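RECORD TYPE: protein structure
NAME: MBL fold metallo-hydrolase
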Amino acid sequence: MITELYKNIYRQGIPLPKNPLKEINSYIVSEDRNLIIDTGFNTEECKEKFMQGVQELGIDLNKTDLLITHLHSDHSGLAATLNKEGIKVYTGKIDGKMINDMTDEAYWKKFDDYKKMFDLEKDHISFDDHPGYKYSPKELIEFIPLEEGDILRIGQYSLEIIDIPGHTPGHIGLYERKHKLFFGGDHVLDKITPNITFWGFDKDILSVYFNSLKKVYKYDINYLFTAHRDIIRDHKKRISELLKHHENRLNEVMEIIEEQEKTVRDTAASMHWELRYNGWEEFPSPQKWFASGEAMSHLEHLVFIGKAERTEKKGILYYKFK
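PREDICTED:
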């Protein structure tokens, strides 16, 4: 169903089959040209729904560009298909490279290392049913890379590129200063909290995310268009809630590793998750990946700020409160 949210700005909900998120908000800015923001999974069902919205609005794909806010497959899944049909595809430099890297099986082999490192081997899971692996683009995309400060002009709208890393290393948003609009992808979500996962030991990704939240907090925004759930009218209130959520999360993790060292997997299994499962053993494989990645980002943040220590035993990581 297409809904006009602001003058010539539309939201289309694209279903995400068998996924707790249920659907993604794909946005369409339709003026002298058209800009579509995010696509849904790389599946026939998502493509059919995506094209229904295009046809309902009478959009000419020859006058249409696509922007991908970040690398996750629910946002980038159809980018290669649309690129092959002649549509220009914009994204940030970092995530654009990573999306193309994900077309190579070698990218996903590192998940075997993560499985060992996180202590997930005891759960006998693989990455084969990970939505990033299943539903991401399978062909290279000729991205037009964007940097902070670049501007995409669509009719009356001047959409400024804003770097908001954290949820992914190269997440970008679009800010329309005159109309006080912000397209934020998964950076700030209503009712649910974005997954902040582990992206490597070279940076404290949770601190990166906090800094990005504080950056957007300062902007003058009337409508924050989110990729999931409802649009946000009071972004400062929601950002404050997200920062408080992670403060509570860090306190929870410190309590879990206070008495004895824990693996990433066992830390995640002890954390509270708002999922409809009776304990860790019922978590589907993808949810165990997501939960462990989020536990890891919080454990590594505690290491970075000197409140926890990390040790390795036979390739498995253990964390202990200092």
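COMMENT: The chain has a mean pLDDT of 96.
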